[in-house]
Design brief:
The protein has 398 residues and is an all-beta fold. The chain has no helices and 21 strands. The strands form 2 sheets. It has a 19-stranded mixed β-sheet that branches. A two-stranded antiparallel ribbon has the order 13-14.
Length: 398
């Protein structure tokens, strides 16, 4: 049996005294439901409950958001009884139309018992894991007419993951030198991003720092009936991350230790369009990362999602992915590689005040089974299915 409790709070505040509130919305929702799931030969039933609340205010060109969410889950079935949960909070403000580049933001999350999905990359072991993350974002940007121009964006985070006997501390320092976006009513902003660097350092086992560097990236390109994103860059593990005290003294340093020097090109491409009533989303991306057990990995992944409206309140979604992963365990390791891929079919519909979600998928995956083992060297074929029936009380007040 599974029990889930989710509570979300979203509150917006005015980010500038020079702007006045032009729109505001307050709401609170409570959801309860039941469900069942199948992971390979393991079955479980579920009871679900969630709550959401929001108070959103917009100025002429800014929206500031405070959000908090929590969840708990108790599952029981053929593999016994286990639990999971999460807690998160976020405060941030951004120009309307450019939410991915906030002017300021602070956030934190806690989680336990989280399970990797069937399509997850080779990062963790085959079981639930605990995590904690906190950080902040700062950006210098100006808004003029239909344009937003940013010079300097920073995202600094710290985190921790725990799974069985393995622990990993994570340090994140992301920065972008320049971006320029043109806002468009009823459409995605068209943006140019220049020198966008994501640095992730890990320690606990083998120390390593992986940098995913986007030299140039265009997003929201209008192709006439389709939207595209495209970017080019590089992946390397030669960077160093340091923390300092208030006097400029280095407190700690994270850098790559017993891993080969990796320097390869990278890409990120996305295409979204409508084929009649069908919404299509295609993406291909190369990513570098370090797994919980300290392996340096590079993944090439392609994914496709197609959403079909089949009635006024019903949608059928088909998704598929293909991935090729290379990883190294030490400097002397020549490297290993494996291919994964699969698909899922999901149905979402609203029937007499009830929201129903049913999904089933099969894939060659690193997580075909959640048997508590470490991430395997080779994937295998696995199956998962789930069904949830929920009822929501809109604008609920205690």
């Amino acid at each position: 049996m599974r029990f889930a409790l989710v509570a979300s709070l979203v509150v917006a505040r005015v980010a500038s005294a020079d702007n006045h509130v032009v729109a505001a919305e307050e709401r609170a929702d409570v959801t309860v439901g039941v469900g069942a799931q199948q992971i390979g030969k393991t079955a479980a039933s579920s009871v679900l409950a969630s709550a959401q609340a929001s108070d959103v205010e917009y100025t002429n060109d800014l929206v500031t958001t405070l959000a908090a969410d929590s969840s708990t889950e108790l599952r029981g079935g053929s593999d016994g009884l286990n639990a999971s949960g999460a807690l998160g909070a976020r405060l941030g403000g951004a120009y309307i139309g450019v939410p991915e580049r906030p002017v300021f933001a602070a956030f934190g999350t806690l989680g336990f018992g989280t399970r990797p999905g069937l399509d997850a990359r080779r990062d963790l072991g085959r079981s639930g894991y605990a995590s904690a993350t906190g950080g902040f974002e700062l950006g210098l940007a100006v808004h003029h007419g239909d344009r937003v121009i940013g010079i300097g964006y920073f995202d600094i985070e710290g985190g921790f993951e725990d799974q069985g006997a393995a622990q990993r501390a994570t340090f994140v320092f992301n920065m972008e030198a320049y971006y320029a976006c043109r806002l468009r009513a009823g459409a995605r902003a068209r943006c140019l991003h220049v020198v966008d660097i994501e640095n992730t350092g890990v320690s606990g086992g083998t120390q390593a720092v992986v940098s995913n560097i986007s030299v140039v990236r265009w997003t929201g390109l209008d192709l006439g009936g389709a939207w595209a994103d495209i970017g080019f860059g590089a992946i390397t593990d030669t960077a160093k991350l340091s923390t300092e005290d208030g006097h400029g003294n280095v407190v700690s340093t994270v850098q790559t230790e017993d891993l080969p020097v990796i320097q390869v090109g990278s890409y990120d491409a996305r295409l979204a369009t409508m084929a009649g009533p069908v919404e299509l989303d295609l993406r291909a991306k190369r990513t570098g990362f370090v797994s919980l057990d300290g392996d340096m990995s590079i993944e090439d992944r392609a994914s496709l999602t197609a959403a079909f409206p089949i009635a006024a309140h019903a949608k059928l979604t088909a998704s598929a992915f293909l991935a090729r992963t290379h990883w190294w365990t030490s400097k002397s390791d020549p490297g290993s590689a494996a291919s994964t891929g699969g698909g899922e079919l999901a149905l979402d519909l609203r029937l007499h005040q009830f929201d129903i979600h049913a999904a089933g998928g099969v894939a060659r995956s690193f997580y075909a089974a959640l048997d508590g083992a470490t991430a395997p060297d080779q994937p295998s074929v696995g199956f998962r299915s789930a069904i949830d029936v929920k009822h929501s009380i809109r604008n609920w007040t205690p």
